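Structure ticket #2291
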Amino acid sequence: MFDRYEGGDYAILVHMDLPAEVDREDLSELQLLADSAGVKTLGVVTAARSSPSPKYFVGSGKAEEIAELVKETQASIVIFNHALSPTQERNLEKICQCRVLDRTGLILDIFAQRARTHEGKLQVELAQLRHISTRLVRGWTHLERQKGGIGLRGPGETQLETDRRLLRARIDSIEKRLDKVRRQREQGRRARSRAEVATVSLVGYTNAGKSTLFNRITSAEVYVRDQLFATLDPTMRRVELPNVGAMILADTVGFVSHLPHRLVEAFRATLEEAANATLLLHVVDAAAENRLHLIEEVQSVLEEIGAADLPQLLVYNKLDLLADAEPRIDRDDQGVPRAVWLSAATGAGCELLVEAIAERLGEQMVSGAVVIPPQHARLRAQLFEGNAVQEENYRDNGDIELQILLPRSELQRLMAPFRDVGNPPRWLPENPDAEPKPEDWEID
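Resolution: structure written out below.
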């Protein structure tokens, strides 16, 4: 018989070096995760093996060492910097006589603490239920099959079977509610698409400074703290850009190495905001020694959610932590901005980021003058409705002259009904006496 032990705030951290690159984790990141979860670290145990042990993940001798350290320090939880199987967790709990948590369970706990919105709480609960569904046995191994007799006859299930059935019902219920949220988000994206409002999503490794940058650009008051996964629930704000117009800036959850697949599945509705963005702002901690590795980790998550091929603008943040570094824009061979160096904390270089975003989004914008005859005033109303008019003047013959700025595709859509009509709307030609032609609306 073995009962589950209650977790606490004092932990022993365990990290094992494995030769396979795909299995390697960062010990310093585990310590940051533990701090973010509110855990006080009493000790760190490291080991090295060619491959994990099927029974304890670490060797039996190292497992005994961990158990002794738990006894000496009175730690209430052991946290592994790796993914453990249910059997390994159960065996380690038996020998350590305390709660054992793996990397996935720790991240799930942090997410549970950070969730604020109803959607965020549902997503965390879904991920947690999927995670513990394979671990129920350790909490119920001492329970026998339900008793028979008068007043005690049951369905013949063990307590474990009953719990699994209830779990499946709860998971199905949450998935249905999240599907509804997903459809609502899709409706919002379609509405923004019809209005030709660009969506720019902040993505990047956790604690790279995305929320600080979001607050700096939008003057919002999103929760900011120097810890991993400070932001969990997505936040969106409308921002006006010079020479481009309105855009929607979205602050999303940060990524981490080997982001648990259950979290990617549960947070699909949230991550779709990044997957459907017009432009991704990939925020990088410029002061991090392993920033190239962090960029690769973010790219791997973007591939998993189908966003790897979207246009990206690298944003190297925390420039204030680098000596003799100045804000700047890096451009490619065609002069297109590809990276911006700035400090969201001090605001240095943020105006360069706005300039770079405007350039990248402005690639698909059309600016110029249009002349609209009075009989086609409906076009004037549509341009005003789309917030595309910058200036309006009336000519002596009643024609309306508008200075406009709008996406090329939107202009072509609005002009399609007027191509074959007499005296159509037209671009203002360089020669005012020139005969207007329908092809004047073929935007190069």
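Closing remark: The mean pLDDT is 77.
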